Amino acid sequence: AVQYHKYSPKEAAIWKEGEAVPYLFIARVFSKIEAQSKRLLITEMMANAFRTIIAVSPEDLLPAVCLAANKLAPDFMGVELGIGDSIMIKAVAETCGRSVESIKASVEEEGDLGTVCNASRAKQMTFCKPKPLTARGMVKTLTEIAQLSGGSSQLKKKDKVKAMLVAAREMEAQYIVRSLQGKMRIGLAESTVLVALAHAAVLSEADKAGKKLRGDALQEELAEGERIIKQVYCEMPNYEVIVPALLEHGLHHLHEHASLTAGIPVKPMLAKPTKGISEVLDRFSSGRFTCEYKYDGERAQIHMLEGGKIKIFSRNSEDNTSKYPDIAAMLPKAIAPGVTSFILDAEAVAVNSTTGAIQPFQVLSTRKRKDADVDSIVVRVCVFSFDLLFLNGESLLQRPLAERRELLHKSFLELPNEFQFAKASDAADVEAIQEFLNESIVGNCEGLMVKTLDVDATYEPSKRSLNWLKVKKDYLQGMTDSCDLVPIGAYFGKGKRTGVYGAYLLACYNDEEEEYQSVCKIGTGFSDTALAELHASLSARVTSHAPSYYRTSDSLAPDVWFEPCQVWEVMAADLSISPVHLAAIGLVDAAKGIALRFPRFLRVRDDKSVEDATSSAQIAEMYNNQATTKAVPADDEDD
Ligand code: ATP
């Protein structure tokens, strides 16, 4: 049973009330978490640590949360530590008095620089110990490292890393190294950090009020706390706002102080795949719904701040403003009088500027990714807007889609081939929807998005919601949806493919276990140019060993392994239980995984990070939803 208690005096004894929280306190918690695999217990350990900090040194809650989430700043700020592996290895070598070569050899053996650093430091004698590291000091130094730029910045970064490593005690060095490498690998996903923060807040508030929460009442409060924190984080993904507001105003008033704001990206709502129109009609048997074209471009969340400044964010909350100066220049003409701020949800789609014909995604992908110059843009885009989330300072998330759409249409004016509303039909019978689907495909779209209008029709940030269903043209050909997979290894090409990789090993992502599980080998769908480009980009990301967080069978061993760095969209005929692949192992079959059959490469998804790859749970869901699951032979028909 999960016990929510404060840390025992022994564990908290390494620091006194009012003193800055030592980093060692956090590192010890990480070490316990790393040794634990049960999610409930991991959550409890993190929640207890946060709760102790709230009781003894609340100003350290923010640095502790940043360290646990391993995030210095929200994603949209694009803050990067900018430390390459070679600098890290040098810093470790110099701190431990070992050669770079011997550190590299140990990393080959151990698979993790953090562990190597820790083991090497244990042997080292330090006579004059610097002051112990604190949680807030760590965050400060990491921020300074991120801010260093220019000529000698790599040297300065290395010196800062060394200073931290020299001051490290016990297992601290291991987590310092992993923080700097961007991956903690202790099995603590950011979603767990959020849940732990919610639990810590609920319990601390009860402590303060002298309330003893137990049984069902405790569970209800914890669940409500989780709901609040997750909602707030979707709307305002910034710990620097959330944590102080939580401490000052409490959980139940948090949303009033940390919510949707123009200028800060909200995690977009996503759709569930369906097998076709009849499934849509079954699911939406009561209540009105609308069908919209599913445009094949790039999601663009467009913000206008009070004063007229425009910001454009990607599906991943990255700042795409400098990629689309043409949208920012065009938009003022499309805004109705009286509109002072907004957040639009839209798709930027390449179009032929004279005819307005929609171009395939591949055309859009040739545009410059950053710092584009309006005058030299060749590929024109049209913004197809489908939702309005915020208007004149007010959040619309809780309003039903019918109302949001009405406000969208009132607040903007269509400009042909530049700014249009997503084409929609509210028809509800099979024939009319089928006709609309065909039309969308003829019009170069991916299919339809079907959305509830009145009931259960709020905007649900970051959710893959059942209130949005997608019907793609590909569904008509077999599998219900394409998958977004991570290339984790490759096999050298032969014959015509000599000199490039001939086939790749792909994996889905298990976000619970934080590991990549192999799901297919793929060698089809690549043009010669794609093969050359992928070889060029991926050969720079080869690692000597399969990282410990790759799960695959020995029989699949590729010629080279890659760090997880790209996401590929892949279509397959169907899914089957596999004797060799380990995707979703334990979810459908206790000992076997699932594989994609006859996979075909479609494109690289630059707008997705590796953690956004199709999850193991989604693979299991797709497998279970397959109409023909029973008929699919349990084999592994890779290319
Ligand atoms: P994929 O693009 O691979 O289908 P995804 O995970 O990026 O997957 P989905 O939930 O499958 O997203 O589909 C939603 C995406 O479709 C949105 O992110 C958006 O970019 C695009 N889109 C195009 N037209 C619409 C529309 N009318 N309504 C909502 N999203 C749309």
Structure description:
With 639 residues, the chain is an alpha+beta fold. Helices cover 37% and strands 19% of the residues. The chain contains 21 helices and 21 strands. Strands 12, 13, 14, 15, 16, 17, 18 and 21 form an eight-stranded mixed beta sheet that branches. A hairpin with a 2-residue loop joins strand 6 and strand 7 (394-395). The two termini are 47 Å apart. It binds adenosine-5'-triphosphate (ATP). Residues 268, 270-271, 292-295, 299, 315, 347, 386, 422, 449, 470, 482 line the site of adenosine-5'-triphosphate.
Characteristic terms for this protein:
DNA damage; binds adenosine-5'-triphosphate; 21 strands; cell division; disordered C terminus; eight-stranded mixed β-sheet; 639 residues; 19% strand
Summarize the topology:
Blueprint: H1 9-12, H2 23-34, H3 39-56, H4 61-69, H5 85-96, H6 100-110, H7 113-123, H8 135-147, H9 153-167, H10 172-181, H11 190-209, H12 215-235, H13 239-249, H14 254-257, E1 270-273, H15 277-283, E2 289-294, E3 298-304, E4 310-313, H16 325-330, E5 342-351, H17 361-364, E6 380-391, E7 394-395, H18 401-411, E8 419-421, E9 424-425, H19 430-442, E10 447-452, E11 464-472, E12 483-492, E13 501-510, E14 515-522, H20 528-539, E15 542-543, E16 550-551, E17 560-562, E18 568-571, E19 574-578, E20 593-597, E21 600-604, H21 616-625
Parallel strand pairs: 1-11, 6-8, 14-16
Antiparallel strand pairs: 2-9, 2-10, 3-4, 3-5, 5-6, 6-7, 10-11, 12-13, 12-17, 12-18, 13-14, 15-17, 18-21, 19-20
Helix pairs in contact: 2-3, 2-8, 3-4, 3-11, 4-8, 4-13, 5-6, 5-7, 5-9, 6-7, 7-10, 8-9, 9-10, 11-12
The structure holds adenosine-5'-triphosphate.
Adenosine-5'-triphosphate binds next to strand 1 and strand 2.
Catalytic activity: ATP + (deoxyribonucleotide)n-3'-hydroxyl + 5'-phospho-(deoxyribonucleotide)m = (deoxyribonucleotide)n+m + AMP + diphosphate
Keywords: ATP-binding, Cell cycle, Cell division, DNA damage, DNA recombination, DNA repair, DNA replication, Ligase, Nucleotide-binding, Nucleus
Family: Belongs to the ATP-dependent DNA ligase family.
